[in-house]
Specification:
The chain has 241 residues and is an alpha/beta fold. Helix content is 38%, strand content 25%. The longest helix has 16 residues. Bound molecules: adenosine-5'-triphosphate (ATP) and magnesium ion.
Length: 241
């Protein structure tokens, strides 16, 4: 579903991604972790072309991102992205937040979009909040709305960038539960997170990044039992305590 080959990227003289290669198969869940500044956010942003790359190639669902003929807006609509901050439109109701892109980007009619939005809202357990505004919901609830909004677009894959790290501790699990369910339903997912409980539960593989490189890309069992690099050992020791 997602293939990266020797992806390199620079900000000016600073190389933020260094020859990153990996592959995520359909239905696979890959957790991306590593120290702050190692390039995790940049890496997953390249997958839906939010960040251009200077070297290498990226293919998503058979579509080459660096091909000039590729319609990037259409591609982005098909790859759901959930950020740390939920970025719902504050002046729109929850149901309007869920229908806007369906209508504008997918040209669904209002009724169909609303039906889809409400269906996904109830799937994340928030049907009763359809008429409220984002400011009236908790952080965890807003993040679940953000996930529902991405799912409204019928994505072929979902990218998450630390979706729970801005949340109060008691709200983390309600968001992770939704993500675990998605994983069990077979969604292809790339998830930047330091929630190792989530990784243990649903990840197929773990990618560990350091200084713009993919240092480890292994089955989850191997990553936890037997990280190869010193850097990953060090990181795991810190994060698990
Ligand atoms: N727009 C930008 N311009 C210049 N440098 C940037 C830009 N965005 C990120 N960087 C730098 O690129 C490096 C990688 O950033 P990135 O956000 O991908 O790291 P990260 O692994 O997601 O870190 P964190 O865990 O803190 O979120 C950092 O050193 C950062 O300062
Ligand atoms: Mg980041």
């Amino acid at each position: 579903m997602i293939t990266l080959k020797n992806v390199s990227k620079w900000y000016g003289h600073f190389q933020v991604l260094n020859e990153c290669s990996t592959q995520v198969n359909k239905g696979e869940v890959v957790v991306v972790c590593g120290p702050s500044g190692s390039g995790k956010s940049t890496l997953i942003k390249t997958v839906n072309a939010l960040e251009p790359i200077q070297q290498g190639s990226i293919e998503v669902n058979g579509i080459q991102l660096n091909d000039k003929k590729t319609n990037l807006a259409q591609l982005r609509a098909k790859v759901g992205m959930v950020f740390q901050h939920f970025e719902l439109f504050p002046h729109l109701s929850i149901v309007e937040n869920l229908t806007l892109a369906q209508i504008k980007v997918l040209q669904r009619n209002k009724e169909a979009a609303r039906e889809k939005g409400l269906k996904l809202l109830s799937r994340v357990g928030l049907a009763v909040h359809a008429g409220k505004f984002p400011g009236q919901l908790s952080g965890g609830q807003q993040q679940r709305v953000a996930i529902a909004r991405a799912l409204c677009m019928d994505p072929v894959a979902m990218l998450f960038d630390e979706p729970t790290s801005a949340l109060d501790p008691e709200m983390i699990n309600e968001v992770l539960d939704v993500m675990v369910e998605l994983a069990h339903e077979g969604m292809t997912m790339m998830v930047v997170t330091h929630e190792m409980g989530f990784a243990r539960k649903v990840a197929n593989r773990v990618i560990f990044m350091d200084e713009g490189r993919i240092v480890e890309d292994t089955r989850k069992e191997d990553f936890f039992a037997n990280p190869r690099s010193e850097r990953a050992k060090d990181f795991l020791a810190k994060i698990l305590h």
